[in-house]
Amino acid sequence: MNNKSILILASLFSINASAQTLFTDNFQDGNFDGWTITGAGAPAITNQYGSNYSLRLVKQKQATQTIQTQGYDNLVVSVDMAGYLLEYGERCAAKYSTDNGNSWNLFATLVDGQDDGVTLYSGSATLPTQTAQVMISLATQGNNNADYCYFDNISLTGEPVSVSGGFEPLTGNGNVSRSQLTAAELNNSNTNLVNNNAYALPTNAAHPTNTFSGTLTLSGESTNGTLQEQGTSIASSYNNPEHLPEFEFEFVQTGSHIIPLERGLIATTHPAWHYILEPGRVWNENSDNGFSRVALPFALQEAGANCTHNGVLSFLFKDDGSTSNVAYQITGETCAYFKFNSWGMLGASYTPSSIANSATVKSNYVDEVTRRMPTKDISELASDYPTANINTAQLGSDQATSDQTVFGVVVDGINYVSSCKTRMGDYPFCEVMALPSYSTAKSVVGAVGLMRMEQKYPGTKTQSVNQCYASSWSEVSFENLLDMATGRYNSDGFEVDEGDSTTANNFFLKYTNSEKLNHACTYTKKATAGTKWVYHTSDTYLLGVQLNALESTDLWDMLYADVWKPLGVSPLMSTTSRTTESTSNPWNGQPLSGYGLTYHYDDVVKIAEFLSKDQGVINGIQILEPTMLAQTLQTQAHGLNAGSQYDSYDNGFWIWNAQQAFSCINALSIPYMSGYGGIVVSLLPNDMIYYAFSDSNDYGQVNTALELNKIRSMCN
Fold first, then answer.
1. 448-456 and 537-550 are packed helices; what angle lies between their axes, rounded to 10 degrees?
2. CA nearest 684: which of 642, 645, 660, 712?
3. What is the rounded CA–CA span in Å between residue 324 and residue 177?
4. CA-closest candidate to residue 418, choices 384, 369, 386, 375
5. 137/149 Cα distance (integer angstroms)
6. CA 691/CA 672 separation, integer angstroms
């Protein structure tokens, strides 16, 4: 058409080169097939307008078109319109609906004064959220058959989720054979433990036709739920451990991925548990009666401690807010002293709403996934290095299989990882399984914290302790605290002080900063600072308090902003366990420093490579003080004796004297991080990493390291 003028009646838009046309109609075929015509007035016709055809509607006619848009995002609808003989109160209108016509959004209109029957006007809109279906309505609202509206060049474009959301659409046809967690069962009040594959995305899943955006609220948390201990006998010492904390959280969806708005450790009012919520999946199954199915990974972490119990929940929903009950189960943990299965069925409500920052949440999640280290199954290490003759059965064998959560090795930038194990089959969301740090935090917070502060403020490591009331503590430096070499202890026997009931009752089971400091400062001088190692988590806690007092914001917030976020760790690490100082703002006090972090396995390997391979450098910038880090990573024997001829301790890391294990001619010291129950993260000298999370109470790494030695020698 020869447009005399163009008026943009909706938001200006530009179509990305990746956009695809999902629907278009310029009526040049002389018909309006596919449009549903309703309303009073003369019949709709494809009328000659200028040199082209267009759809002409008169009086109160409406034409409606429905377009399937699942698998696409960033949807843009547009139209050209002209009007004739419109009077006051009459108009031509173009609208769209994303909820099956229950509500409509106007994106273009013509009124009196814009009705010369010649001038063409254009209107467009970008739809606010991804949706599975769009309805377009073209209508005239006139009083008689002389009131005309012309519509032309109708278009709906969108970007495939693989472009706009970073993920390919699901391609299954939805014909899924399901015998557990069926639609009928999710609408009942009871559930039982099932294999975790019932919560997993099935092979033939279809792309979801519903889009979750809003709030999921559970009901019955305080009354429903079953817990059965598995080899421990401690549940009676907890308050309501069988019941979930109250659950009311917002989620958004991109493609077949559903993302909680709140990530990291979420403090609750439950006496035993805090929440961790992670992204899950959404899909369609033909037997779900038009509902879409959600599976979400979550974890319970012990309040004020680090025991972490991993679970998954599932439910059905529709765009209109309809939802089934929610089934959940918890069948695995990294917690040596409290093991249990827990499950239940809870009522649920879904309140659809537009999430203000949903685009940012989706974009951040895509970036999070994109920045993960490439992974392969642990078994593929043997085929990738065929001449090494690796026995993959030896990998991870230092920890008993029945007590393992996950283990892996990093070789040449590939994370070879095992499955994530539970008592009811493999965990279906292994890549976001919550893994507690326990004492690996002494390295990740204590050591990295002091190395970062020393780089920012030279001389920090030699500053004296001033948070303890006894003046003799002024002889102790921050680096002495990091080395657990304060010279202040009750017993120098291996972990005697740490395992004493006084430490349990007066430090680990106290939850305020003042109470923890009171215990940390109680130890009296027995040796010169810097000369003797005695294991005290309270020393690392005291170091965290000292560093926190120097930092203008907060020690952990500084570390996340300066180190971990630029490194590309997950949002799970944006938080850490803290003391609780008030009922109005609980669990928001001092970072615990010596324990309390939670990782994904991708976080673990990124941190390990940052320390060992990248030597504290991110994007060409030295983040950690290089002398301290180099001292820690050196292969010569170093540090204070830590309980055996093979172990020493230096700058917050355990040091393994591995010369004999590998029959090396020269000295070989390997730094590693260690966490309660059987957690090890080893910075191997041939640019490899070994990590294992377990409850085996075994911190060994020899079996795995000897196999990796076949790829490249550990010896200098």
1. 30
2. 712
3. 19
4. 375
5. 13
6. 9
Q: Are 348 and 323 in contact (CB under 8 A)?
A: yes
Token readout for 589 is 């006090």
- Beta bridge partners, 494, equal none
Distance in angstroms (rounded) separating the CA atoms of residues 412 and 567: 18
d(CA 514, CA 532): 27
Q: What is the DSSP letter of 493?
A: S
Single-letter code of the amino acid located at 141? Q
DSSP state of 604: H
Name the burial class of residue 701, with classes exposed (0-12), middle (13-18) and buried (19+) by CB atoms within 10 angstroms of its CB.
buried
| Among 82-96, 249-263, 310-324, 644-658, the least confident range | 82-96
Under the banding of pLDDT at 50, 70 and 90, the label for residue 48 is low
* pLDDT, mean of residues 68-90: 84
The reported pLDDT for the residue numbered 28 is 81
Residue 30 has pLDDT above 80, yes or no: no
Of 333, 291, 340, 332, the C-alpha closest to 314 is: 291
DSSP state of 696: S
Q: Which two tokens stand for residue 47?
A: 């009328």
Query: Measured between alpha carbons, how far is 375 from 602 in angstroms, rounded to an integer?
Result: 9
Per-residue pLDDT of 151-193, as tens digits, reads 989 999 988 765 445 678 888 999 999 999 999 999 998 999 9
The number of helix segments (H) and strand segments (E) in the chain equals 16, 35
**Over pLDDT 90: what percentage of the chain?**
77
Q: What does the H/E/C string look like for 663-679? A: CCCCCCEEEEEEECCCE
- What would the DSSP string read from start to end of 567-620? HT--GGGG---B----SSSTT-SSB-SSS--EE-HHHHHHHHHHHHTSTTEETT
Percent of the chain with pLDDT over 70: 96
Rounded Cα distance between 653 and 704, Å, is: 20
- Half-sphere exposure (CA, 13 Å, Cβ side) for 668? 19
* Whole-number pLDDT of residue 465: 97
Q: Is 497 helix (H, G, I), strand (E, B) or coil?
A: helix
> Helix (H, G, I), strand (E, B), or coil: what is residue 626?
helix
5 has pLDDT over 50: no
Q: Mapping DSSP to helix (H, G, I), strand (E, B) and coil, where does residue 230 land?
A: coil
The three-state secondary structure class of 145 is: coil
Identify the pLDDT of residue 159: 80
Write out the H or E segment, with its range, that includes residue 499: helix 496-499
* CA 200, 297, 374, 404 torsion-angle sign: negative
Task: Identify the sign of the CA torsion 200, 206, 209, 213.
Answer: positive
* Parallel/antiparallel/unpaired status of strands 375-377 and 414-417: parallel
Residue 324's closest CA among 244, 210, 430, 246?
Answer: 210
Round the average pLDDT of the chain to a whole number and report it.
92
What's the chain's Rg over C-alpha atoms?
31
Q: Give residue 161's pLDDT.
A: 66
Q: Is 186 strand, coil or helix? A: helix
Residue among 590, 598, 658, 568 at smallest CA distance from 444: 598
Question: What is the C-alpha to C-alpha distance for residues 204 and 201, in angstroms, rounded to an integer?
Answer: 9
- CA 71 – CA 207 distance, rounded (Å): 7
Say if CB 221 and CB 246 are below 8 A apart. yes
Asked if 256 and 284 count as a contact pair (C-beta separation under 8 A), the reply is no
| CA 493/CA 69 separation, integer angstroms | 67
Per residue in 195-218, pLDDT (tens digit) is 999 999 999 999 999 999 999 999
In the block, tokens 């919520």 appear at: 277
State both tokens at 400. Answer: 């008993």
Nearest alpha carbon to residue 198 among 334, 331, 335: 331
Region at 651 (left for phi over 0; alpha for psi -120 to 50; beta for the rest)? left
